[in-house]
Amino acid sequence: MTPAYPQPGVDLDNARFIIAWRERGRLVLQRCRGCGAMIFYPRTMCPGCWSPDLAWVEASGRGVVVSYALVHRPNHESFNGEVPIILAEIALAEGPMMIARIIANNPATIRTGLSVKLVSDVGRYPLPTFTT
Predict the structure, then answer these.
(1) Is 4 domain-assigned?
(2) In terms of Cα–Cα distance, which of 108, 39, 100, 14 is closest to 64?
(3) Which residues contact 4 (CB under 8 A, 6 or more apart)?
(4) 81, 2 in Cβ contact below 8 A?
(5) Does 3 reside within a domain?
(6) Is position 122 within any domain?
(7) Which of 115, 63, 108, 117 is nearest to 86 (CA)?
(8) Distance of CA 131 to CAs 42, 86, 115, Å?
(9) pTM here?
(10) Which among 68, 58, 63, 60 has a CA at the least distance from the CA of 132?
């Protein structure tokens, strides 16, 4: 039996982000009500204008690969049967960047500039995960 993936820690800053993915398979971001900036990673204030007035909004779930790496030696045994694992910097359609996993039938097809979207089945992935 494959061990379970390590789970992210949940705190006051990221609870809505984690729960939106875990329960609904949705990616949510913060939008600053002061300056309108879209924000990722979850935090208590806007990094642009320092306003604490942030709202949660559902993201489109679409993005573009900026950079990526193929991981052949994972640091947790739950990933051993899934190598190579594709970790990518993704420019979300809403503007922010995030690091996320990409699931692809053929890792050789991943490239900079490739469009990606959220996986449709959350399954066992504990954080937002993309596909081609």
Answers:
(1) no
(2) 100
(3) 78, 124
(4) yes
(5) no
(6) yes
(7) 108
(8) 23, 10, 9
(9) 0.92
(10) 63
pLDDT tens digits, residue range 53-87?
Answer: 999 999 999 999 999 999 999 999 999 999 999 99
Q: Rounded distance, CA 83 to CA 50, Å?
A: 40
The span from the CA of 29 to the CA of 9, in Å, is 17
C-alpha span between 3 and 97 (Å, rounded): 30
For residue range 84-125, what is the model confidence (pLDDT) as tens digits?
A: 999 999 999 999 999 999 999 999 999 999 999 999 877 778
Q: What is the CA radius of gyration of the chain?
A: 15
Tokens of 70: 């193929």
**What are the tokens at 14?**
């990221």
The number of domains in the chain is 1
Residue holding tokens 């390590």? 6
Residue 26 lies in a domain: yes
- Structural domain that includes position 51: 15-131
Q: Would you give the distance in Å from CA 82 to the centre of its chain? A: 18
Residue 130 corresponds to which amino acid? F
Identify whether the C-beta of residue 100 lies closer than 8 Å to the C-beta of residue 111. no
